[in-house]
Amino acid sequence: MKLIFLGPPGAGKGTQAEKISELYGIAHISTGDMLRSQMREGTPLGAEAKGYIDRGELVPDELIVAMVAERIKEEDCANGFLLDGFPRTVSQAEALNGISDIDMVIDIAVPAERLMERIGGRRMCSGCGAGYHTSSYHKDTCEKCGASLYIRDDDRPETVKHRITVYERQTKPLIDYYREKGNLSRVNGDNTPDRVFDDVAAAIKGLV
Ligand code: AP5
Ligand code: MG
């Protein structure tokens, strides 16, 4: 099974992708997580990506496409994968067409006014990458692995506003792009995480 999760920053792509990939035994490929791990390791790609990420801009298409093309060749993708945060431009989607077919694109729709609140309370685990929100989780260590939680550098309010503008301009056109291809499914992301999960799972059900 090969899936794409679309949606604005803070829509809940990562939250849902973690659970769906586990449920179906497919690889969770988050380009944002991959870039952050390259930055932590201090690789040339990480160094190049850092400026773009800190400004809330997209990393150039050719770097991202090459990274994803390599990633989906790995063994854990044999059973399928879930792309979280890729593609993000029409040009990335066109490149993906030449690399792999896709069964379903799920757009997790959340109104803009909710996004700042979601990202403002987000805390990430420095060990396993799990995501939390201060409204429902009050500890400063991860309940799964015990590592400390941190706030992403690009989660500052001014950067988030710019990320949302970049989403509107460069990524939102993909909704029509995939609708026209006929494999788009839309889920209301402005619900509890459990309810969103049920709706995503229901959308995928026809595929398994
Ligand atoms: P990336 O890491 O992909 O960030 P993003 O797309 O901006 O999305 P987020 O990770 O911020 O949000 P999410 O939808 O995963 O929400 P989450 O589940 O965490 O990309 C970062 C940067 O990397 C980009 O800006 C760009 O520079 C670069 N990049 C990455 N991919 C690229 C690409 N393809 N091309 C070019 N550049 C690229 O949820 C958010 C919060 O809300 C959490 O606290 C969560 O607990 C909470 N929450 C989740 N669901 C709910 C709910 N239903 N109700 C209440 N709270 C909820
Ligand atoms: Mg994410």
Explained architecture:
The structure is a single chain. The protein is of the alpha/beta class. A hairpin with a 5-residue loop joins β5 (122-125) and β6. The mean pLDDT is 96. Strands 2-3-1-4-8 form a 5-stranded parallel β-sheet, sandwiched between helices. A 3-stranded antiparallel β-sheet has the order 6-5-7. It has helices at residues 13-24, 31-41, 44-55, 61-71, 90-97, 112-120, 157-171, 173-181, 193-205, and strands at residues 2-6, 27-30, 81-84, 104-109, 122-125, 131-133, 149-150, 184-188. It is globular and about 40 Å long. The longest helix is centred in the C-terminal third of the chain and has 15 residues, at 157-171. It is built from 9 helices and 8 strands. α1 packs across α9 (193-205), α2 crosses α3 and α4 (61-71) packs parallel to α5. It binds BIS(adenosine)-5'-pentaphosphate and magnesium ion (MG). Residues 13-14, 30, 32 line the site of magnesium ion (MG). The site of magnesium ion has 4 residues, from α1.
